[in-house]
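Much of what follows relies on a compact textual record of a protein's fold. Each token is a code from a learned vocabulary of local backbone shapes. The record below shows the convention in full.
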Amino acid sequence: MHVHEKVTAIYNLLNVIGYKADSKLDRENRHVAAISDAAHAAIGTHAEILLSADRVFADKVRAIYEFLGVTTEVGLVVLVDGEIRLQAE
């Protein structure tokens, strides 16, 4: 199994067990968003940095990458005084 496949599998497993689960998964349209998030996490394994404004997503992906030994940095971006900034961990 390739690393990106492992990321997708673990991302979905974490949703099922409720670890930083994507919100409102009882709604059908949120499943599409969760699948998209899992895909972004998987594709991020091929990058140097993965940026997101979603803290729950960033935290979950950091945990997955750490577990798998993926070296991609995960950054949280925030809006401060009208400027987009990278928030320190």
Remarks:
- The beta strands are 49-52, 73-80, 83-87.
- The chain has one domain: 3-87.
